[in-house]
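To whoever is covering the structure queue this week,

Two jobs came back overnight. Logging them here so there's a record in the thread.

Job A:
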Amino acid sequence: MQRDELIWFLRRYKLAVQSTVSPDGAPQAAVVGYAVSDDLEIVFDTVETTRKWLNLRADPRIALVVGWDDAVTAQIEGVADFPTGAELERIQACYFSVYPDGRDRLSWPGITHVRVRPSWVRYSDFTQDPPHIVELPLP
């Protein structure tokens, strides 16, 4: 699997399970709606009162799983950040292309957008025998 194939796969879905680590070391997971940029950045919105936001501010490491319905998944680990200025506008445009209603949430108190840059990806297709499992090289 190549990088462009991974982007295509991720764009087939709209939901991911994301996991973060709380300050006391406990794992915490949530379902998020996401978009994927041409540069393989995963973008979602949240508010500054959520556990995921608080966790990512303290420790930006994040894990996501996409695509569990069809026995084909992508497991992703990476680092999250909270862009500002022109970078924020760029990732918001990516997110709004998938979730146009995200513009309405801009009026919510504490709304923010998270960008995840993957550092490790494992693609698994369990519809084949034997299963096709590959780790993608990332910069």
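Job B:
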Amino acid sequence: MVEFIMLATVVLVPLAYLILTLASLQAAVFASEASARDAAYILSHDLTAENLAIEQLDANFSSYLREEQGTGKLSYRCDPMPCAVGSLLLVRVETAVPLPLIPGDFAQTLGAELPVVAEYAFPVEGLVIRHE
């Protein structure tokens, strides 16, 4: 009986931690990918709508992740520059997922975070540039 309890503890505790880690990582991947896709679609129609793209990024991250896991960083560029109809808009969303059961500040100090990067390309169609 003692051997069974010890073996179960040695096997099941790391297995449960691995499952928690993979669940957090998968949620961050979903949030990053959805945010990159949505931002590319929004920005390909209007490059001045960066605030709307960031709001959508925050909405995606809040629906997929818990609040203490943070949010992503959005960056984009056109290929070729400058952006014009027919260019390709390249969007990149980066985030870091802290390992489960480790407090956020402590995880940053130890570097106990897994980086997640999602990139998405979308053609620029009917770009509107507002002159104010």
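Note for Job B: The CA atoms of residues 45 and 127 lie 5 Å apart.

Please reply-all if you pick these up so we don't duplicate work.
Q.
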